Amino acid sequence: MDRTLDYLIIAIYLAGVALLGILKGGKQKSVNDYFLGAKSVPWWAVCFSIVAAETSTLTFISIPGLAYLTNMNFLQVTIGYLLGRILIAVFFLPSYYKGELSTAYAYLETRFGSKTRSFSSIVFMFTRMAADGVRLFATAIPLKLMLDISYPSAIIIIALVALLYTYIGGVRGVIWVDVVQMFIYIGGALIAIVFLASNYLPGGLTDLFATEDTLQKLSVFNWGFDGGLSEFFATPYTVIGGIFGGAFLSMASHGTDQLIVQRLLTIKKLKDSQKAIVGSGIIVIVQFAVFLLVGVLLFLYYGTYSLETIGLQKADEIFPYFIIESLPVGLSGLIIAGLFAAALSTLAGSMSSLSSSTMLDLYKPLSKVTSEKEELKISRYFTIMWAVLLVGSAILFMNSPDAVVELALSIASFTYGGLLGTFMLGLFVPKAKQEDALAGFTAGILIMITVISLQLVAWTWYTLIGVFATLLVGKLLSIISVRNETDV
To answer: What is the pLDDT of residue 274?
Structure first.
């Protein structure tokens, strides 16, 4: 099959994305321009950008694969995502808009001290590098299959495109590219649904409700009480686990992770920032429903749970395989462009957020650089450094047997509980001090390492357990320190 048209579409798309990011980013005169867009970005653009940044290739590839093997139970988690964002809008954002905060972790310095800010920033960096290394690897799957090149080569090509417009256009360029890319990748998923429904379901999508098998694939809610208490906590997608786990994960990822908070801080007014975060939660529910439906339709298309029958090893490969093998030339190119749209939005955001946290949380407080021009130059060097590290991280995850969406979320959950717990300690425990926060944060991470290593519960419970552990240790220590002061 001649793939020239597909290659042309993808090449034009990648070049166009890089050019758009450079043009919309404008000239960067300072670190404030480069990392905060001079607080001039409209809320609706940030709303779309948040969705694009969190979606990545995981949604495009792994969520259809998940639905292919199971059903639509994952949608329960997205209800929790919306709930978590509402809580962020009510409790977190007002604190972020007091004073001139440049990163999520600047709040922790204001509340506790510089050590807490530095520690939290470093934890964020390692977590983001590992989780987005997985995401970058996932993006390389279709490019590798299509061009018949090695995974490292595919990873480097994608990273270079994201680096180009992030390096030049800064966060403003990243956000405006995200706006375009969100519509491109959702459009790609809708094209796949139309093609699958028209070629396999004579009566259209209503045929999904025709048999017991398809109705089971469309199952959304699972209470999980059938197999006893141990199985309840070991099952990731239950109503309680999904909603609570999704809420706490969303509070951590969108309320304490610089990848998202950086975007929220580019908006001038608090109310607009709140609209952006809550609006993104509504869009995400619809978006996950679309990608889960793609997986259900793929199951009907291939008619088998056995990936080996099709010649595949991972469920993550099923949607890329369908795009390349079953779609007409040209159409497949458009959908793969949509896949790259999902990937580049997260990757570029990671480079920008990682370099901003490195510069503003770690380097700038310790350096003696006073020139804005010099600070901007160093910031761009940090962007290059993180691009290289993300490529290295992606290559390390090439041989993982797990579904990439669950792998990335599990990695994030190692530290998200401690991170979110530390922020909540600052918000809700007025007497907690820096020593209490650091001890609680460390305890939360150590407990999560134990829980995950022993595989005691499903990943949807990880963040909740980490938050509880951090708050408990921090609260107890604050009570002890207050009593000691009173005795003295």
So the answer is: 96
Residue 205 tokens, joined: 């999508």
| pLDDT reported for residue 410 | 66
Q: Which residue, among 412, 437, 330, has the nearest Cα to 105 in the 3D structure?
A: 437
Nearest to 285 by CA among 75, 38, 28, 39: 75
Supply the mean pLDDT for the chain.
84
| Contact in structure between 177 and 15 (CB atoms under 8 Å) | no
- Cβ–Cβ under 8 Å, residues 214 and 296: yes
At 400, is the pLDDT very low, low, confident or very high (cuts 50, 70, 90)? low
pLDDT tens, residue by residue, 210-231: 666 677 788 888 887 777 777 7
Q: Residues 424-451: what's their mean pLDDT?
A: 92
- Res 406 pLDDT > 70: no
DSSP three-state, residue 98: coil
Cβ within 8 Å of residue 418, ≥6 positions away: 123, 440, 441, 442, 443, 444, 445, 448, 466, 469, 470
Rounded to a whole number of angstroms, the CA Rg of the chain reads: 22
Q: Provide φ and ψ at 312, rounded to 5°.
A: -115, 160
Q: Which two tokens stand for residue 398?
A: 């090439």
C-beta neighbour count of 150 within 10 angstroms: 13
The two structure tokens encoding residue 352: 């920008």
Looking at the chain, the whole-number percentage of residues with pLDDT higher than 70 is: 92
DSSP string, 375-437: HHHHHHHHHHHHHHHHHHHHHHTTT--S-HHHHHHHHHHHHHHHHHHHHHHHHH-TT--HHHH
**Vertex 445: Cα angle to 439 and 447 (nearest 5):** 100
Rounded to whole angstroms, how far apart are CA atoms 109 and 131? 25
Separation of alpha carbons 81 and 73, rounded Å: 14
Q: Is the pLDDT of residue 300 over 60?
A: yes
Alpha-carbon span 280 to 268, nearest angstrom: 18
Higher-confidence position of 373 and 436: 436
CATH architecture of 4-400: Up-down Bundle (1.20)
What confidence tens digit (pLDDT) does each residue in 115-159 have? 999 999 998 898 888 888 877 887 777 777 777 788 889 889 888
Tell which residue, 408, 6, 345, 36, has the closest CA to residue 183. 345
What sign does the dihedral 105-106-108-113 (CA atoms) show?
positive
- Quick one: DSSP state of residue 250? H
Q: Which residues of 252-280 are buried (b: 16+ CB within 10 A; e: fewer)?
A: bbbbbbbbbbbbbbbbeeeebbbbbbbbb
Q: Are 278 and 83 in contact (CB under 8 A)?
A: no
- Token look-up 């339709």 returns 297
CA distance 337 to 149: 18
d(CA 98, CA 473): 27
